[in-house]
Design a protein that fits this description.
five-stranded parallel β-sheet; alpha+beta
């Protein structure tokens, strides 16, 4: 089982370190995620942190006496949409990952009325107390709760072995069909010119898509496309964070491009690069996309429809 620990250093660093030691004895160093890099910007490593959370079974929200009142620039940090702790908990809640509030230092559960609207579901979750006097007992009780909660999470299905002969036959059929279509298009230059017009002049601009990823998380993604001849540039967001487009091309009603993000498995200091390959078909004010990730923990593609904003 994989565990992600979310906490504020100025609020609960000592308790969190002690709990981390208890959990890694039970689950192993590679299965307990704790940010110890000292980076406070929620935006700088948003993609790395979200990638780590999506590979976990349970997120522990460590809440100390000052968890709600920690402030920056005169306002509560929890009210800032870019706050790291807020982002971590929301990512888990929206992704269907089990969340357990863990109370340390005599803290009490936060009331829903004291939380930002997006975080109010946290107040409805059962909280676990950790006390100095009975730390071993409380840790054992928490671990049992984590195991039960992780068992209720639906894991992605395992892909079945494929028939290589059938794939080879299918590829031959696809290539043959593609050659036939190409020959037909060459024979009808007027239709080809019209398709080219759709692919260039009508695609530039802002597009919006509601995307559900295979682990259950739902995000409103934005694509900002720039077209120069057959080249596509701009940005396409992944997990709500804009990513720069590379190797983008458009041909007739077909568009393709790539973006990149980072994902951490076990160690935030050694994130790995993930390539997202987008393939789309343009139809007026919609583009039907398939996004295939490569290099990350999940190889399952996402399919969605982007609509002009």
């Amino acid at each position: 089982m994989k565990v992600f620990i979310s906490y504020r250093r100025e609020d609960s660093a000592g308790y969190t370190g002690r709990l981390y030691d208890s959990l890694r004895v039970r689950f192993g160093d590679d299965n307990v995620f704790l940010d110890v890099s000292g980076i406070d910007s929620g935006r700088k490593f948003a993609d790395v942190i979200q990638g780590a959370i999506h590979t976990c079974d349970v997120l522990l929200a460590i809440i100390g006496p000052d968890w709600l009142t920690c402030a920056a620039n005169g306002k509560r940090r929890i009210d800032d949409p870019g706050d790291l702790v807020r982002t971590e908990i929301l990512t888990a809640l929206n992704g269907g990952i089990g969340v357990i509030p863990v109370l340390v230092g005599g803290a009490t559960p936060p009331a829903a009325s004291a939380l930002p609207a997006a975080l109010q579901p946290l107040a409805a979750l059962d909280a676990h107390d950790m006390t100095d006097e009975r730390w071993a007992y409380d840790a054992d009780r928490l671990i049992r709760a984590m195991v039960r909660l992780a068992g209720t999470r639906k894991r992605p299905s395992i892909l079945r072995p494929v028939n290589l002969v059938a794939i080879a036959v299918l590829l031959i059929c696809v290539v043959t069909a593609a050659r036939y279509v190409s020959q037909r298009r060459s024979a009808t230059p007027t239709s080809q010119a019209a398709a080219g017009e759709v692919g260039t002049s009508s695609v530039a601009g802002e597009w919006q898509a509601e995307v559900t990823y295979e682990w259950g998380a739902k995000y409103s993604e934005t694509l900002s496309l720039t077209i120069e001849g057959r080249d596509v540039s701009g940005t396409a967001s992944f997990l709500g964070v804009a990513r720069g487009i590379t190797t983008g091309t458009i041909e007739g009603d077909r568009i393709s491009f790539e973006t990149r993000s980072q994902e951490a498995i076990g160690d935030f200091s050694q994130p790995r690069d993930v390539v997202h390959r987008y393939r789309g078909r343009i139809d007026g004010d919609t583009i039907a996309f398939t996004m295939q990730p490569e290099g990350g923990s999940s190889p399952v593609p996402a399919t969605f429809t982007a609509r002009r904003r």
